[in-house]
């Protein structure tokens, strides 16, 4: 069926309005992230977020009824970015990489994500963010842990599930401690702490999973 000129001209303004709406939502969410990071969830207000976004409170309320809705949508976007960042980094085939390359492949996107989105951790660590924010993160975190454990077991198939789980949990504990230092610094200091984090991970993992590249076994995808 051929689209008439009238139908086409009607749809174009609707698409423009939709694009403007999406742009405004992005603007509000970026502003909310900055305010949440600076003031915490409890200290943030919709008026402060509106000022940061350089819009009126009325404009904000056209898209979000309250700061809880802003935090939940911000968390949804953060967690989707986190999934996307590691959809390839935690792929099973990466277990074949030399350990140094594997650490770079997994750690670099996580560090970049955390540095670019400081409010992500501010909301999690504050303990007062909406339940939906933490709940969705718990789901993503469990998936990251499971994928990491699969890489550990692929490199060291002789490990029991319990041993691999303990190694994975310790790996995450080392990472989280290093990430706190990385996030608290900038420039050369941040780079130095990133290097030290990778060295700490290598030192812990090398005796447990080896350092060399692995040869694919028959039947591996």
TrEMBL record:
DNA-binding region per Swiss-Prot/TrEMBL record: 45-64
Alphabetic keyword roster: DNA-binding, Transcription, Transcription regulation
A molecular function GO annotation: DNA-binding transcription factor activity
Domain HTH tetR-type, first and last residues per copy: 22-82
PROSITE patterns: HTH_TETR_1, HTH_TETR_2
Region Disordered, residue ranges: 1-21
Keyword Transcription included in the entry's annotation: yes
Ranges of Polar residues composition bias in the record: 1-10
Entries under Pfam families matching the protein: TetR_C_15, TetR_N
InterPro entries recorded: DNA-bd_HTH_TetR-type_CS, Homeodomain-like_sf, HTH-type_TetR-like_transc_reg, HTH_TetR, TetR_C_15
PANTHER family in the record: HTH-TYPE TRANSCRIPTIONAL REGULATOR BETI (PTHR30055:SF234), HTH-TYPE TRANSCRIPTIONAL REGULATOR RUTR (PTHR30055)
Protein name: HTH tetR-type domain-containing protein
């Amino acid at each position: 069926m051929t689209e008439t000129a009238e139908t086409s001209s009607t749809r174009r303004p609707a698409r423009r309005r939709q694009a403007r709406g999406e742009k405004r939502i992005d603007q509000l969410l970026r502003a909310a992230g900055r305010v949440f990071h600076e003031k915490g969830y409890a200290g943030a207000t919709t008026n402060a977020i509106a000022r940061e976004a350089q819009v009126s409170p009325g404009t904000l309320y056209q898209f979000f009824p309250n700061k809880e809705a802003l935090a939940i949508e911000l968390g949804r976007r953060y967690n989707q970015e986190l999934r996307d960042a590691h959809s390839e980094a935690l792929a099973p085939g990466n277990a074949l990489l030399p350990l140094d390359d594997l650490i770079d492949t997994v750690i670099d996107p996580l560090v970049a994500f955390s540095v670019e989105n400081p409010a992500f951790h501010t909301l999690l660590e504050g303990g007062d963010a909406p339940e939906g924010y933490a709940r969705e993160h718990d789901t993503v975190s469990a998936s990251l842990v499971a994928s990491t454990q699969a890489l550990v077991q692929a490199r060291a198939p002789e490990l029991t599930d319990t041993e691999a789980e303990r190694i994975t949990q310790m790996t995450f504990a080392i990472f989280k401690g290093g990430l706190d230092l990385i996030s608290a610094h900038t420039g050369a200091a941040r780079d130095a702490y990133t290097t030290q984090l990778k060295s700490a991970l290598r030192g812990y993992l090398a005796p447990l999973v080896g350092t060399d590249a692995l040869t694919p076994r028959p039947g591996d995808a």
